[in-house]
Amino acid sequence: MNKKWVYLFKEGSASQKGLLGGKGSNLAEMxxxxxxxxxxFIVTTEACTEFYNQGEKxxxxxxxxxxxxxxxxxxxxxxxxxxxDNPLLVSVRSGAKFSMPGMMDTILNLGLNDxxxxxxxxxxxxxxxxxxxYRRFIxxxxxxxxxxxxxxxxxxxxxxxxxNGYKFDTELTxxxxxxxxxxxxxxxxxxxxxxxxxxxxxxLMMAVEAVFRSWNNQRAITYRNLYDIxxxxxxxxxxxxxxxxxxxxxSGTGVAFTRNPSTGENKVFGEFLINAQxxxx
Length: 281
Fold this sequence. Notes:
The chain has about 280 residues and is of the alpha+beta class. It is built from 9 helices and 9 strands.
């Protein structure tokens, strides 16, 4: 019997933190007690170890299991990865056994390309939202997966705002964002020397590999040294269907804690932004 490298949220539990990571095991636990968790799956910490054992490559078996679980996620959501009319978009996040805030990398809106962005625009009736999500995805993917300097994208964004006399990102129109998407793709091509990948399956595999590689980025190594976290436990990867905070003034993104993280005061504490996505907080 083949080893299990990938788990649906409903297949895991809070007791599997070592295998599924802190984030993944808690998503599994919340799913199984009936909370409304956007569905997804977890590529295990053991798969991370295997990735390094294989010279930083995903094995055929791990890839096969990711594809199998992606098909189940399509059934759960009623959406199809790469579909022109009803596309599934996912987030790809790291999640080690021990919390390491901000040390590893996240990619949102994965699955967008020139076809699916139009499908999202039609389905939501909100072209501005669709192209805002797309420009964010190109920037995150370029930065996290290929190491394209974030500043190149940020400079293009600021130049677009300055040209139009805007102060806030939210003032950018759908047409502005369409232009920005083309500029971002050109930045990507200039730096990577190939076109931005439009195959969502290829995007996903590259993103999973990037999260595994981020386990050994310098930030993460330094953090583990500071907090005596073992270097050999690896990180899991959480692939989760997207929910969006950037659809307008009736949506937002934020973080909440059961205690104040600065003072330890036993009161709910949080911060949020309207019409934004997670990396903005």
